[in-house]
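Lecture 7, part 2: worked example. A protein chain together with 2-acetamido-2-deoxy-beta-D-glucopyranose.
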Amino acid sequence: MAFSMRILLSLTSFLALLSLHLRSVSSASATPSSPITTTDHPLDPLTKDEFTLVRTIVLKKYPTNTGFHYVGLDDPDKATLLKWASSPNKNLVPIPRIAFVIVMVNSQTREIFINLKTQQILSDNVHTGNGFPTLTVDEQSQAISLPLKYGPFIESVKKRGLNLSDVVCSSFTVGWYGETKSSRALRVECFMMGETANIYVRPINGIVIVVDIEKMQIIKYQDRSVETVPRAENTEYRAEHQPPPFGPKLHGVAMMQPEGPGFKIQGHSVSWANWKFHVGYDVRAGVVISLASIYDLDKHKSRRVLYRGYISELFVPYQDPSDEWYYKTFFDAGEFGFGQSMVSLEPDRDCPPNAQFMDAYLHDRQGNPSLLENAFCIFELHGGISWRHTETGIPNQTLREVRSDVSLVVRSVVTVGNYDNVLDWEFKPSGSLKLGIALSGMLEIKAVEIKHKDEIKEEQHGTLVSENSIGVYHDHFYIYHLDLDIDGEENSLVKTDLKSVKVTDGSSKRKSYWIAEAQTLKNESAAKIRLGTSPSELAIVNPNKKTSVGNEVGYRLIPAMPAHPLLTEDDYPQMRGAFTNYNVWVTPYNRSEKWAGGPYVDQSRGDNTLAVWTKEDRNIENKDIVLWHVVGIHHVPAQEDFPIMPLLSTSFELRPTNFFERNAVLKTLSPKVWKWPACPKQN
Ligand SMILES: *[C@@H]1O[C@H](CO)[C@@H](O)[C@H](O)[C@H]1NC(C)=O
Ligand SMILES: *[C@@H]1O[C@H](CO)[C@@H](O)[C@H](O)[C@H]1NC(C)=O
Ligand SMILES: *[C@@H]1O[C@H](CO)[C@@H](O)[C@H](O)[C@H]1NC(C)=O
Ligand SMILES: *[C@@H]1O[C@H](CO)[C@@H](O)[C@H](O)[C@H]1NC(C)=O
Ligand SMILES: [Cu+2]
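Predicted complex, written out as structure tokens:
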């Protein structure tokens, strides 16, 4: 939700000039594989050379005052791409390779499409609607350096008896609160480092700094009051800065895969067990999974499941209405860029030793490509059970049949300021897709004069997590864009309500039971669903394909515990984040409807969101449809979240439901168990 010191990261990226695109780091010596210089799949992210090409073409037309806010692949037309994907001779289906670029030229936002093969600008239009593009890393680092050179701020620091060289600042988006005129601005807040690296728990409260980022000047400065900066003691999280003792002691494990990994990565295409899919990424979305299909052993063919899936937005509204906090209602994907905020993964920590890593090319404000090493990892996850049974009902026999499970995980971490989002796509041989979200990092802390709960006299909008430190209440609402294509594009949403039936005529000894009533939802308004209000199941089905016993083939959504927004619908942040009003939405596929909070989210006014598009109430029956799923977490901070939060996890599942004729892993045998050869016990 905040930006600070990301400049260090891009610098490191630049220094890593020679990097292998794909690396195995299970041992210290990397297994080299050739770096990707050309694309072999039309969905491959822009290459380093393509970023450079885009930059050259744009700067030729707009040589001065040009900032690159988004450069990415304009995803190919779906019909053409599907034709390409199913064609045995891919060369016969040419797919144009087009870059979509959002630049700001002299404070004007321009949308430019460039044909990368012919190197021509296809179109160039000015964006005139509300909202501004995703912030660049560069302008945020400029903004946060301003206070340190600003007289009144230096005074404020002195007045508090603090050392300026320990001050670190961070940038925050300003939101929108009904203003009729908007200009690009950021709030800047500063923190104390000193004896700790944990800056977020040591805010210098009482100061308001607003920066006009077009002029790159402080346009508002207020020093309201002097508040104690929470102490540095006991806030450190780096092991080397902690005093012993350490514990509890955890034991390690040796991993080896004598048969090698079970997956193959070619470029960005992954095949593993019965799954095939493409892993891409985007500056705005982060990891994007496309064209996921699963091999059906009984039907002897690959069957389509997911055309495209990614996190479309993350809305994080804080719940303190005071002058210094009310504006904290962040949209991490649209404002800060989920892909732009991806961070390098640490081998053997973020991912197990059997993981393989992939790098990503992103771009900076000047349009130059920047390399992010180990941007995501792919690994096989062991330890689970696929299915089992112990038969205790057959006299004089014990029968036990167990299959251990292995799944494939694609993991990335998106760090937006204080919070780290660990994002997993888990593929299971049973056909299930499990999408995991886990949060770690730091709480946003409000400094107060309170040292004990007994001193709290008025609402503090959070939990006293340590002396002088309130962890402020907030939500995390993620919305996934899931373009499922179950056995083809034409799909429907089926809602199955579980209903109580009362027995009143004495026909049973029971007084009640329940039945399942399925209904195909016809339009967008019917498909706006708040989960958890009544028992129901939701499935995306292909009404044109049935199993041999006549069920429509489908995939069911097994949601995480549903969370609903608590802000009123007329509140400004809620208008902008109106896609959280329901946990489930279904829209007809429209390639320009990608971002649930709208394409331009910084200071957006909620006039181009999923909630607005669906007012058309379009037909969604037997159509190419997109499932949007909101995963929400209300966060009431606790002391254990301080000074750094242990992973807080949630997940949901897309599970085949009458998709296969029977259990798809009935004949999947457990993997071979390998023993270390004559390995002595070591300590
Ligand atoms: C401020 O910090 C710097 C660098 O850590 C140090 O050299 C200096 O002595 C400090 N000044 C005061 C007044 O504490
Ligand atoms: C089970 O084993 C017991 C003891 O060996 C034997 O008496 C009994 O007849 C067996 N029952 C069956 C159903 O085989
Ligand atoms: C939308 O679909 C629902 C059933 O799914 C139906 O009851 C309703 O009349 C439809 N609305 C319109 C405007 O057709
Ligand atoms: C696709 O979405 C855009 C943006 O919401 C909208 O303007 C356009 O009318 C939509 N097209 C169709 C065919 O619904
Ligand atoms: Cu939180």
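The mean pLDDT is 93. Helices lie at 6-15, 48-61, 78-86, 137-145, 151-159, 332-336, 572-576, 610-613. Keep this in mind for problem set question 3.
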